[in-house]
From TrEMBL, chains A, B:
It comes from Exidia glandulosa HHB12029. Pfam families: Esterase. This is S-formylglutathione hydrolase. Keywords: Cytoplasm, Hydrolase, Serine esterase. Serine hydrolase involved in the detoxification of formaldehyde. GO terms for molecular function: carboxylic ester hydrolase activity; S-formylglutathione hydrolase activity. The active site is at S153, D231, H268. Its EC number is 3.1.2.12. SUPFAM superfamilies: alpha/beta-Hydrolases. One of its GO terms (cellular component) is cytosol. Gene3D superfamilies: alpha/beta hydrolase. Its main location: cytoplasm.
Amino acid sequence: MASLETVQSNKSFGGVITKYKFESKALGGLNAQFNVFVPESDGSTKFPVLWYLAGLTCNEDTGPWKGGFLRDAADAGIALIFPDTSPRGAGVQGEDDDWQFGTGAGFYLNATADKWAKNYRMRAHIIEELPAVIQAATSIPLDFTRQSIFGHSMGGLGALTLYLKHRDLFVSCSAFAPISNPTNAPWGHTAFGGYLKGGVDEGKEYDPTELIKTVGGDAGVHILVDYGDADNFYKQKQLLPENLVAAAEKAGFPTSQVTVRAQPGYDHSYYFISTFAPEHIKFHAKFLKA
Amino acid sequence: MASLETVQSNKSFGGVITKYKFESKALGGLNAQFNVFVPESDGSTKFPVLWYLAGLTCNEDTGPWKGGFLRDAADAGIALIFPDTSPRGAGVQGEDDDWQFGTGAGFYLNATADKWAKNYRMRAHIIEELPAVIQAATSIPLDFTRQSIFGHSMGGLGALTLYLKHRDLFVSCSAFAPISNPTNAPWGHTAFGGYLKGGVDEGKEYDPTELIKTVGGDAGVHILVDYGDADNFYKQKQLLPENLVAAAEKAGFPTSQVTVRAQPGYDHSYYFISTFAPEHIKFHAKFLKA
């Protein structure tokens, strides 16, 4: 098991946010960084875990710097994990050519195309590797039997797909302006066409609208999605939340289980995210602290 | 009067944050940018104004992105103005050589040394120019008869000095980890030695510890300061809040008027600032909404 090196540690809202670094097997032996926020503790409490997955061009600092999440997480007694959005420095040819693909754009999948398969494995990094590495570091008081996940844009896609594929792991999921139907959107075509041997067809595995069809409507899910109707990427049909709504309805989910809200006048920025962050954390607290 | 160009506008917490650009006479004709947050409005309300001055290396976006101020300002019905920290692109030789001086390090003063005097006039920019330019743009509903000011580090210095020099303009002042006695600190020596003809001696004009001596203890002030005792710049004696406390006490101010608090375990970062931001905004609201 790789051991964690502490890069930085800052007190915040009574708790501590720590940036760790380790050699990631899941990402082909590259160094990976992530942040963990742990609320103020009496030393005996283990905190439920809320994962935040950031969007294109972002990294492990974007959420804690700009999301405004720590305040409500501290109040609710919930720990936060902020992974990076891709491997860094893999040296794959072309990985730094386009902000929508490669570095900063890992799409939370396990690549299968030869060129990318060694390093671009953010799903394995998040689902398998980080929980194991964190639990091995016994000083980090997290309770992985209670996990939820949320994210923004590409990270909203990540949160929804990981939740729908791993319902045994997560009790709730929420997203800000998620890429909701990537097999029908330019971003998804670029990503799946590049990372996956099977292209867009294999990409259905990473498409919330496709995945929700495979989960029975009687299964019971807890999903909250907000997007702004002034979001340019929404207008450019990169997000397609309506397709997720239609698929959820067709699969028999009541809107109380898959709640998708258009927020008038809001855009794609963290000014939007931070506005609705308190509600999202309250949503997850309901299930994490049940 | 220079007219304002809208660079960007984002809805946040029910209100709107707008970035403006204009040709700044105070800064020698350079383009200057600033952000204004206006809470949700019925169209007839004019909002009291809270200025936020950022620290070294920062700009007009640092506060709104990382401070977590908008949420509480929206709740309290207070507008926020975020100026830049220096002129940009003045082309003065050496202005980009050192993060502690020149670009991103205007120290909220009016330079008098020949080389800097044309462009480095952040005090005039904030005290005279921005209120005039904003009021001329009649679409921005601010009430400049009610103003307060706060800031971080170099911006805490700026907030304290502008408040103590212009008590007719501001009803309250607060600061996070302010440079409290720059004539006795390395940062102040660099800044005053460079920007001011009269050097460190002229710098007393921009030193909170010196200025508070000139304000009678019976005058009544409203000052709140927080710093972290794990702040490396505090440990390096760049901040010297104890000197401000001693001067205030000697001048006859009760601690209820000059409240300086050491926050155990906190450092110089926005993780610290955002933790105490809600209290600071509540502090200003008490006076702005009185």
